[in-house]
Amino acid sequence: MRPRLKQKASPIDIENMEIRKACPKDVPQILEFIKGIARYEKMENEVVATENMLHEWLFQKEVAEVVFAEEDGKAAGFALYFHNFSTFVGKAGIYLEDLYVFPEHRGKGYGKALFLHLAKTALERGCGRMEWVCLNWNQPSIDFYRSMGAISLDDWKTYRLTEDALKELVY
User: Fold this and answer.
1) For 108-140, how does the pLDDT look when each residue is reduced to its tens digit (9 = 90+)?
2) Alpha-carbon distances, residue 14 vs 18, 19, 21, 105 (angstroms)
3) Taking a C-beta distance cutoff of 8 angstroms, is the pair 143, 106 a contact?
4) What is the pLDDT of residue 114?
């Protein structure tokens, strides 16, 4: 059974808030958010991304996009996402890799604003769905996603081949 929102999600009314697409000069800020989410998820030692890498992959190769929720021109939260494709749906989707709001800005609606912005982007681009993963222990995020009408795909397991494992497999 799919949970449904009781009503359409209400618009966010945060004074002086703006959702803005990232540009190359934002790379240091993007890395700051990545390190922030890694700290929150207790995975800081796994961050190997550098500003040069982010610049290459986000702004030269353009394989992912970033948006910021800003208050008075200062970033409060960010979302990093990219397109995937569903063979069953026959359409692209949006895959939300990271959504993170700095602790001092939580509970004000920035996460919801970013999430709704991505949902609207998915619809505007004709996407069939939006997906992401969430750590099992992250109950605040689980509750947030469920409040947005999301369902958990408990029948699926996520698998990963790291860069080293890929090299070992291929070479």
Assistant:
1) 999 999 999 999 999 999 999 999 999 999 999
2) 9, 11, 18, 11
3) no
4) 97
Q: Are 53 and 62 in contact (CB under 8 A)?
A: no
Amino acid symbol at 37: I
Active site residues: 145
**CA distances (Å), origin 111, targets 102, 138, 154:** 10, 15, 24
CA 89 vs CA 63, 115, 127, 165: distances in Å: 22, 22, 9, 30
Instruction: Please compute, for residue 116, the number of CA atoms within 13 A of its CA located in the half-sphere on the CB side.
Output: 16
